[in-house]
Amino acid sequence: MATASEPSDLRILVVDDEEDNVEIISHFLQQEGYHVERAYDGEQALEAVRRANNGFHLILLDIMMPGKDGYEVVRTLRQRAETEHIPVIFLTAKTEEEDQIKGLLLGADSYLTKPVPPAVVVANVKAVLRRSGVEESRIMQVGDLTIYEDEYRASLEGRDLGLTLTEFELLRYLVRHPRKAFTRQHLLETIWKDAMMVTERTVDAHIKNLREKLGPFAIHIQTVRGVGYRFVEDAEGASEEA
Asked: In this model, does residue 204 exceed pLDDT 90?
C-alpha cells in the first residue's frame, strides 16, 4: 500500500471562544492524523503561535471573540515576516458578504460560515494545505484499488465505485489498518460516531453494499467470525461471508 503523504507532522491551531466547536473540529482533524492545538481567544492564539516558534502549518480561526477578534489576529500575523506565510481559514458565524470580503482581503486563505459540516472543514483544510504546498494530495493504492482521500472517492481498475460517504469512510478505515480485525461496535463508534438509532446490523448492511460494489475485489474484506471485519492485502483464504 502506498500513501503520497502523511499529515501526522502537520500542526493546526483551532481558535474559537466556543469550546464545543473547538473540540468537535479538533476531533475530526485528529481523526485525519493532524496534530491539533487549541486556543479560545485572539490573545491565546497569538501566544500559541509564539510558543510554537511560528510552527503551525494552518490556523482555523473564528472572528467574533473576546479581546482581539479574528480580524486582528490575521492582521497581526500578516504584518510579521515570520508568520505572514501561515495559511488561515476563517470559520465564523458572520455571513455578510462584506465580512467575507474583509476577511479575504486581510489575507485569509478561505472563509467558511457556520454551521458547516466537520467533513467540509476538513476538506477545506486539505485544499488550503495543498495550495500552500504543505501537503500533497493523499492517495492510497492497493492492487487495482485506488482511494483518493482528499476527494472522498475510490476507483477500481480506473472505474469510479460510486461509494456513499459512509461506504467510503468504512473502506478507507479498513484499508488504513490492514489485517487488524475490528468489532462491529468499534466500527460503529469510529465511522458513525454519535449517530442515533444505529445498530451493529448497520455495519453488516454497509459491508454487504461495499462488497457488491467492489465485485471480485471484495475478497479482500474478510469476515472474522465472532468479531467483525478486517481488510487483507493478500486475499488468500479471505471470506466474503457477512
From this structure: yes
> For the sheet containing 159-160, what is the strand order?
2-3, 139-142, 145-148, 153-156, 159-160
Question: How many degrees, rounded to 5, is the angle at CA 45 between CA 39 and CA 49?
Answer: 120
Q: How far, CA to CA in Å, does 77 sit from each of 18, 89, 156?
A: 22, 13, 44
CATH T-level assignment (fold) for domain 139-231: Arc Repressor Mutant, subunit A (1.10.10)
Q: Is the pTM of this model over 0.90?
A: no
Q: Which CATH class is domain 2-131?
A: alpha beta
Q: Which amino acid is at 168?
A: F
Query: What's the pLDDT tens digit per position in 157-203?
Result: 999 999 999 999 999 999 988 999 999 999 988 888 766 667 888 99
> How many angstroms separate the CA atoms of 186 and 20, rounded?
24
Q: What is the DSSP string of 159-190?
A: EE----HHHHHHHHHHHHSTT--EEHHHHIII
Q: Domain ranges in the chain?
A: 2-131, 139-231
